[in-house]
Design brief:
About 75% of the residues lie in helices and about 5% in strands. With about 375 residues, the chain is mainly α.
Length: about 375
């Protein structure tokens, strides 16, 4: 929750309005492709898993995790456009993946004859997204106004400013959950609103994320591994491990390669974007949500495969994040300013109609 909030605060909305093309490709093209590819592999590799169950597993593993990507989004040696794209993707994709998770969960349950109308699940997912976004925007805006007024009146110090983000994030999450919205989506939208309206407070939110937030994130992963996955580890077989590896090393990279065709990005940039799609907190929540439904026969298998994939991701992405970000940042720093990694040439290029019918491409 706090990771989503702090990462949303870090997003510069002014830059996002200018350079939205890569996040749009990652969210609108790569994610659906990743779900389709992941479902096909799961259906062929994991015996006993129905097509709906395979699609549900792929949807659970579709969102990426901002917590494991901190080394990238906070390393200013990387091009700002690449950092912002990964940050926006990891913040928004859990809310975008939620309808797919709900729909395929309904289909998986219906295939067992245990669910009611799938349309009720679709309506529930739509309510989660809409209500969550509204609650998050409201709480974030009110929180930004309150901290700005309190700061101007001299009522708070640096410690209170850092802790204030906890209250805003918690209120957004609780408010959305009480009103049948998505708490995680509400937290992210609250962070966007808070960061956009209270720009002077961003530094203190970042300080909290670098200190207390990191500790809480590590505790979450430790508890998930020990309490949830630990008792199931004896059930891990070769096919489960194979799917986990393919999900990390093939499904997302292939989807990103296909989604970035025509973007004129360098091969290393595409590989960087494709590899750094760590699975984490969002996938944990979705997997537990599937189990809690209680009417999906394949829930335990989905939880096991998702858990193994998340554990592998923690190690694989955690080990490679800082070294590759550091080396890629050095090489990207030598790219010309007009490179697609540094600016969105599709935004700044336009068609100029010159005199005497002489048309030419110009850059603003």
């Amino acid at each position: 929750m706090l990771v989503l909030f702090t990462d949303a605060v870090r997003i510069d909305l002014r830059v996002l309005r200018r350079e939205y093309h890569i996040p749009l490709r990652l969210l609108g093209v790569a994610m659906p492709l990743g779900i389709a590819i992941g479902a096909a592999i799961a259906y062929g590799l994991l015996p006993g898993l129905s097509l709906a169950g395979a699609a549900l597993l792929a949807s659970v593993l579709a969102p990426t995790d901002a917590a494991l990507g901190t080394a990238m989004v906070s390393d200013r040696r990387l091009p700002a456009r690449i950092r912002q794209s990964l940050n926006v993707e990891s913040g928004l994709n859990d809310g975008i993946a939620l309808p797919a998770v709900m729909l395929f969960a309904a289909l998986a349950a219906a295939s067992e004859g245990l669910a009611g109308s799938a349309w009720s699940w679709v309506g529930f997912a739509a309510g989660q997204i809409g209500v969550g976004a509204l609650v998050g925007a409201g709480v974030g805006a009110v929180g930004a106004w309150a901290i700005t007024r309190a700061d101007a009146a001299g009522w708070v110090n640096a410690t209170h400013r850092r802790l204030f983000s906890v209250g805003v994030a918690g209120l957004a999450y609780a408010g959305a959950e009480v009103t049948t919205g998505s708490g995680f989506l509400a937290v992210f939208v609250a962070g966007l609103a808070f960061g956009g309206l209270a720009t002077a407070q961003r530094e203190f939110v970042h300080q909290f994320a670098e200190r207390e937030g990191e500790l809480l994130t590590l505790m979450t992963f430790a508890l998930f591994g020990a309490v949830v996955i630990g008792p199931l580890i004896v059930d891990v077989d070769g096919r489960t491990l194979a799917y986990a590896v393919l999900s990390l090393a093939v499904v997302r990279p292939l989807a990103v390669v296909l989604s970035t065709l025509g973007a004129r990005l360098r091969p290393e940039t595409v590989c960087f974007l494709g590899w750094f799609g760590p699975r984490g907190l969002a996938s944990i929540v979705f997997a537990l949500l599937v189990v809690e439904q209680g009417d999906i026969a394949e829930a335990d298998r989905i939880l096991l495969v998702a858990g193994v994939t998340i554990l592998l991701s923690v190690y694989a992405h955690g080990i490679t994040a800082a070294p590759w970000a550091r080396s890629f940042g050095r090489r990207a720093g030598r790219y010309p300013p007009t490179a697609p990694e540094h600016q969105d040439v599709t935004v700044h290029r336009y068609r100029w109609h010159g005199p005497r019918g002489q048309d030419a491409d110009r850059e603003d």
